Amino acid sequence: EKGGYDHFMLKEIYEQPSVIKDTYRGRLLANEGIIRMAGIEDNLEKFLNADRIIIVACGTSWHAGLVAEYIFEEFTRVPVEVEYASEFRYRNPIIGPKDVVIAISQSGETADTMAAIKLAKEKGAFVFGVCNVVGSSISRETHAGAYTHAGPEIGVASTKAFTTQITVLTMIALRLAKAKGTLSNTDYHMYLQELELIPEKVKEALGTNDIAKEIAATFIDAPNCLYLGRGYNFPVALEGALKLKEISYIHAEGYPAAEMKHGPIALIDEQMPVVVIAPRKGHYDKIVSNIQEIKSRSGRIIAVVTKGDTEVRKLADFVIEIPETSDALSPLLTTIPLQLLSYHIAVMRECNVDQPRNLAKSVTVE
Ligand code: F6R
């Protein structure tokens, strides 16, 4: 059942190279410069005419939506809003026929997301689903959709669903960018090629398992933990913190790194582990100065960096190296060591990794 792994969560983390490939199989033809997904092709006009895209989801799926916001706006120049389904449904949202709503749900059964979809439909919006479970309620309720093809996710903490959601959403953004001409030809082809290389690079990122375990041993007794990232990796910081909270019961918060000085920096002392996502591309110099700020307050720094990094290494207590990719695709790699880190911390704390207390795999009540 667990394929030789101690937990479903670990199995699912390790499945990511192959399920990401399953997600883009037949849809991404990098050498031909083609992305084709039936649900998008059949509704291309709706997407192209949209004044804005509203993404609704909960939990980890909401974090995938936040990553998608950065990607969609950069690639397609269409304004995107990302909403917690539970907030959206109760606040009389301004929404109409010129809006496209993308609902993201691994289970396809989340009550709040379902209610948000029904409301958006009533108001005339076109609703597109990104679900994992085939034939699920949300996949049936939406006008069209694209499955993530991650296979069954048994561990309550979502892992492979997150990376495959990002993969699907990236493909949608690239398809729309091609139709709109909002990405240069060079960039468009570069992203297709890069996306095709992601499974190999995720495999390489899984090689951080040993260092993640070593770091976990140092932090098992930490009462709190901070996760910081910028740009595309800000949502990854949120997701890293959520993973730690839900399976290890350590309080953790994710923040955009620059928000530190607006409050959370007050928390930093030598007891506080701070996980910083600092890949070479993106806002590297900015994040290096954020790391210096933490260092000068004696925070303990765990940095996720691009292979070969030397600058952050000088400042951090631990570095975790991941392969290089473009800034926009980096969440697919930076997420991996954070999943492994929470996993090992939870195992060392003897928590029930696959079935954390108080949590259910699909939240069918509001
Ligand atoms: C976190 C987690 C939850 C779900 C959330 C939405 O690891 O699993 O936060 O992401 O309950 O679930 P779905 O995606 O099934 O709608």
Automatic annotation (TrEMBL):
Cleaved signal peptide residues: none
Active site: residue positions: 361
Main location: cytoplasm
Catalytic activity: D-fructose 6-phosphate + L-glutamine = D-glucosamine 6-phosphate + L-glutamate
E.C. no: 2.6.1.16
Superkingdom classification of source: Bacteria
Assigned keywords, A-Z: Aminotransferase, Cytoplasm, Glutamine amidotransferase, Repeat, Transferase
Top EC category: transferase
Ranges in a coiled coil: none
A GO term for molecular function: glutamine-fructose-6-phosphate transaminase (isomerizing) activity
UniProt entry tagged with the keyword Glycoprotein: no
Domain named SIS: residues: 43-182, 215-356
Subcellular location: Cytoplasm
Quaternary structure and partners: Homodimer.
Function: Catalyzes the first step in hexosamine metabolism, converting fructose-6P into glucosamine-6P using glutamine as a nitrogen source.
Protein name: Glutamine--fructose-6-phosphate aminotransferase [isomerizing]
Organism: Flavobacterium frigidarium
Primary gene name: glmS
Parent-record interval covered: 249 to 614 of 614
